[in-house]
Protein argonaute 7
Amino acid sequence: MEESEHSKTNKKCIPQTRSFRAPPPLLSQVQNFTTKPILQKPLFNHCNGSNNTPPLATSSENKASNLTITTAPAALDQQSSLPPRRKKEGRRVAIALPQTLVVARRPDSGGVEGPVISLLANHFLVKFDPSQRIFQYDVEISPRPSKDVARLLKQKLVEDNLNLLSGARPAYDGRKNLYSPVEFQANKLEFYIGLPISTGKPSGENANVKEKNKLFRINIKLVSNLDGKALTKYLSKEGDDWVPIPQDYLHALDVVLRESSTEKCIPVGRSLYSSSMGGTTDIGGGAIGLRGFFQSLRPTQQGLALNLDFSVTAFHESIGVIPYLQKRMESLSDLSQRKTRGLTEEEKKEVEKDLRNIRIFVCHRETVQRYRVFGLTKDTTENLWFPDRDGKILRVVNYFKDQYNYDIQFRNLPCLQISRSKPCYLPMELCVVCEGQKFLGKLSDDQTAKLLKMSCQRPRERKAIIDEVMTGPVGPTSGNQAKEFDLQVSTEMTRLSGRILQPPKLKLGDGGHVRDLTPTRRDRHWNLMDSHVFEGTRIGRWALISFGGTADQKTNIPKFIIQLTQRCEQLGIFLNKNTVISPQFEPMHVLNNVTILESKLKSIHRAASNNLQLLICVMEKKHRGYGDLKRIAETSVGVVSQCCLYSNLAKLSSQFLANLALKINAKVGGCTVALFNSLPSQMPQIFGLDEPVIFMGADVTHPHPLDDSSPSIAAVVGSVNWPAANKYVSRMRSQTHRQEIINDLAAMAGEILEDFRCRLSELPKRIIFFRDGVSETQFYKVLEEELQAIKLACSRFPNYKPPITFAVVQKRHHTRLFPNDTIPSTRNQSSDENVPPGTVVDTVITHPKEFDFYLCSHWGVKGTSRPTHYHVLWDENRFTSDEFQKLVYNLCYTFVRCTKPVSLVPPAYYAHLAAYRGRLYLERFDSTNSNRNSTTISRAAPPKAAPLPNLSENVKNLMFYC
C-alpha cells in the first residue's frame, strides 16, 4: 500500500493533482522590486527582551512590513552578525544582514569535486536582438469570447486588416496581450468582426437554428514599447548590480515562440498537445492519453534558453455523453440495453460530478455552438416542460419530435442543464463531449499505469522525440513568428559538462558491531545480505488483522508471520514470533464503515493491554478505507501500522520481506543506515560535533483539481539526532484551500525545535531548511514570509539566533539530462542509459547569478531520470557549491525505506509523505455516510479549513508516515 520510491518518482511524470502549479516561462525570484528600498521597517529584533516582538503575522501585508528590500551589492560584504565559519573566509558571498532580504547569489564559479561527464540538456539557446522593439497592445473583445473564439477573431482580424496593422502578423496570448514587431497605424484601433456562430437555443428557449454571424467589437490600444536591453543586463555575468528580471519582455518572447504551436495544438498550461505526435491512446474510463510537449523560456548562464520536454496527459474522450458515462461508471454499462431505466440518487450524484463543467455540443442539428454542463435537471426528460417565447408550455419530448422529428429514447434519464439560471435543457443522447478537454478527474490506478507507459521513454527515445518536436511541423520553430521578431532559436540541445559526485561510505550494523560499506555498484544500490540495519528495534507486542482474502490466501498468514520474523532477525530487528493475540480476520466491508473499523482496532488494542507497538494489516486489495485505517490507528488508537496486500504474500520474496522490515523498523524508532564519516568530519569548516545541526523539510499538498473547498495540508519535519541526522519528527496542519504559504510554520517549527532540545538537551546551532513544492514565481513570497516564520520560531527561545540556510527543492520541472555519446569520455555509457547517480550540474543551464544546481542522486530504472533542482534562496551558513551539493547527495543515502540513494533530499521527502498522510486524515471514506468529500460545490470563498485530528502521544514523535 505504501508507495515505493520508484513508483512515486514516475507518477510525478504525469501531471495530476498538482500538475498545474507549473510556473510561467519567465522565472524570477525577486521580480517586482526596484533597487530602491521600498519597505521601511527593519526585521524585528529576536529575543532582545523588548516588547516590540510582533506576533505571527496573519497576512502578507503584516509580514511584509517587517522586512526591508535592498540591493544585493549593498548587503554582500556586511557579515558582522553572522557566526564565523571555521575556515575559508576569503571569498565573497551573497549574504545580507538579518534586517535585509536578498536572494542568495552563487558563492563561487561552481563546484569542482567529482569526475567530469559530458552531457546534453533539453535547453535550446535563443538569441535575440536587444534593440528589437516589441509593441505591446491591450486587447478588449466584447462580448467576451472563449480563448478558442478569441484566437479565431485574431486570425480573421489580421487577414482582413494587414494595412492598419502595418503589415505585421502579431502574436496573441489568447487573453489581453497582442505583440507586434512594428507599430500599428494608430495607437488605438477599433474593429467589428463577425464569426458564424449559431444563435439556436436548446429546448427551454424557442429555437432558431439558422447560422449567422455573431458580431464582436475589438478594441486595441498600445500600452507599452519593449526592448531587450534589460534582459541582456539581467543575463550578464559581469558586475554585481542587482536588476529585476524583465518579466514583460520575456512574456512577449514566450508568446511569440508559442504562437505557431498554439494554432496547431491544444494548449494546456505550459504544454501543447497534438494527435499528430503519435495519435491517441484509450486509457479507459472515458479518457484518452495524448502526447505533446512542454516549452518555457528560462534565463540561464548561457543566455536565454527554451526548455522543451516531451509530455503526456489525459483528455476526455470525444464521444456521446451516454457512451461516455457508460465508460465512466460500471453501474451504467447496461444503459444501451435498458433504455427505460433511470438513475438512482447515488448514480445521479456521480453522473453530475462526472459531467459538471464539461463542454459538449449537440448532434441533432448543425452548429458550431458549444455548451458547458452546469448540472442535471431534477426531473427526468419524460417529465420536463418549458415555456416558449409566447409563454406556451411545451413538453421536451414533444418539442424534439415536432421540431427535429426525433423520438427521445432515454426518457427516464435527466437532461443536461446548460445554464446557471435559465431552464436550458439538452437530452443526454443528443450530446457529444467536445474534444480537447483536459481530464481533471482523479485517474484510476489502471489509467495512471497506462499514462505512465505512454510517458516512459528511455533517454535515447525521449531525446529523439524532443529533437523531432524542435524541427517538426508543430514545434516552436514551425512558424514565421521568430523571424518576424528577429529571434534565432537553436535546434540543437545544449552541450555542457556535469560532475559525478562520489558516494559516501555508509555505516551499518553487524551483530552489535559497526560495519562500513561504500555503494560501488553502478546504480549505487546496496544490499543487507550480510549486514544488519544500523539501529534495529525490539517489537515485543504486535498484532495482525486481515481484511478480506480467500480461504487459500488466509492460510498464508502463519507462514508470513514466521518468514517476516526471520527476515527481521537477519536484519538485526527483533520481531516477536508470537502476536499478542491471534490474527484477526475481518471481511473487506469492515473498511467501508468507520465506526465498525474503529471498534475493531480499539478492541485489538485493549486485548494488548493498551500497549501495542505495531499493527500489521493485510488486505485483499487496495481500498479507500486505507486512509480511515491510518487515521484511526494514529490518532484514536495510538499505534503505528504497516499495510500489505495478500497478492504479495503468495511469493513472500526476500526483497518484499526486507522492504517491509525496513519500513516497520523506521516506524517504531529504528534506522536503516547512517553516514560512516559524520557530517562534522566531512565538512569541519561548517559543522562541529559539539554544535548540533537540524535539517528541516516542509511541503504543502493541495486537494484534487475538481475539489474547490477542501483544505490544503502543510507538513514540517526536522531531524532530532546529531550527528547521524537520520531520525525525524513531524508536524502537520490544515490550512486555507490551495494556499501555498505555510500558515503555522512558526508554531510547527517551534515545536520541532523544542523536540530537538528535549532529545539533545540543547538547541541546534544551525538550521538547514528544505522547502518542497514551490514554483519559481513564488520564490520571493515564500522566502519573505516563511524565513520570517522560522526566525519567529527561534525568537521564542531566549537569545537564540542560529544561522539559517533556506533552499527550495523542485521535482516538477522539465529539465532533462542526457549522456552525450558523441564525446569519448562517455563512450562507456550507453546513450540509452540514464545519467549515473551523483550527476550534478551547476553551470550553463542554471541561473545566471543565483545559487542553484541540478542533482540526479538516484538511478533511473525506467524512463528518463528527472534531476532534482535545488535553489538556495538564503544562506547564512555560507556554503560553497561543493559543500552544499555534497551535503544534499550524502543525505540522499540516509532515507529509511530503501537501500539506495533517493531522488529527493530526505527532509523534503519526509515532509511530502507527512503532508500526504495528513491529506488521508481528511479524505474519509464511509459508505454509510453520504458526504464523501467528493462533490464539488461552487463557493464564493473556500470554507475555513477543518483542523486535522491530533496525533496520539504514542505515535507523535515516530516516523509513522514512512
Remarks:
- The chain is about 25% helix and 25% strand.
